């Protein structure tokens, strides 16, 4: 892989990673609820999920999933159910006001729970595996060491994701200052809940080609 190919991959992934999606929305809502520092656990879960999916695609599991419609359907419905459940949970939130003082935030969720939530969000979208399977090989030089190139691509993808997680977390931390009123917090929860349900609906309509 030459530098031009890597740069093209980096630019493409950087833009794609910055596009709002379930992972980014999840990181932002965790930052709103718990602050940037505690949202790091959620970021770690999301990032691990993405890396696992990318490694799985390099190992050929994406091709297996594309060739097994029944398995894909099972995973897809599980992902749809999880995203819609998150949306309903957000809609049913009581709209409690946020205390923006970092020191007064009670750890209502453990770091392990935050990490697990991020991991489940990242793994809830099986079409990412199909996307990675079709996308990554386009940047691999067949004449070189394929595993080394895949490792570089996965590392680049992961760093781009991490950059945007941090950006969304910082944005959420700024947004939380505006959500000290119950009505605004309730509106935020319902908007994010609707978006999660929308992601679930889009995944429900997705069909591998």
Q: Features of this protein?
A:
single chain, 209 residues, mainly alpha, 9 helices
Number of helices: 9
Distance between the termini: 28 Å
The amount of helix comes to over 70%
Q: What series of H and E elements makes up the topology?
A: HHHHHHHHH
The helix/strand class is: mainly alpha
Structure summary, number of beta strands: 0
Largest sheet: none
Taking all residues together, what is the mean pLDDT? 77
Unreliable residue stretches: 97-106
Give the percentage of residues in beta strands.
under 5%
Shape: globular
What value does the Rg take, in angstroms? 18 Å
Please give a structural write-up.
With 209 residues, the chain is mainly α. It is 76% helix and 0% strand. It has nine helices and no strands. Helix 3 runs parallel beside helix 6 and helix 5 packs antiparallel against helix 9. The longest helix has 30 residues. The protein is globular and about 60 Å long. It starts with a helix and ends with a helix.
Would you spell out the secondary-structure blueprint of this structure?
Layout: H1 3-18, H2 22-34, H3 36-58, H4 61-67, H5 69-91, H6 111-123, H7 127-135, H8 146-175, H9 182-205
Brief account:
The protein has about 210 residues and is an all-alpha fold. Helix 1 packs parallel to helix 8 and helix 3 packs parallel to helix 6. The relative contact order is 0.23.
